[in-house]
Amino acid sequence: MKAISTAPGFFRSLEPIEGGLEALTEMESLGHKVFICTSPLGAYQNCVAEKFEWIDKHIGKGWIKKIIITGDKTIVTGDYLIDDRPEIEGVESTPAWKHILYDQPYNHNVNKRRLTWTNYKEILNLQF
User: Could you tell me the pTM of the whole model?
Assistant: First the structure.
């Protein structure tokens, strides 16, 4: 798996998750401040550049300024962090945001409610 995720072009070639781009646009249109917070793979020199390329290609240049790349997501401020990692650890033991677990096959062993792009409005209590 590591060989695949560190191969040149890996991040650039990923397809968007169905409903995800529409959800970002919809949340932003309602006045929410939406950012993309991502961690780089330390062992892969092209990771950061490819993530920027992916955002530009799939969401647009306007989103480039809304990317936060950090090895420690606990230092980022916000209301929510939607992330597929079951546990987010870092410098801050009590981050400013509430962690919402994004549903992925590899985190089904965790006993938490999961967000998908079909139920995000309900989970986040967004009024549309």
Answer: 0.88
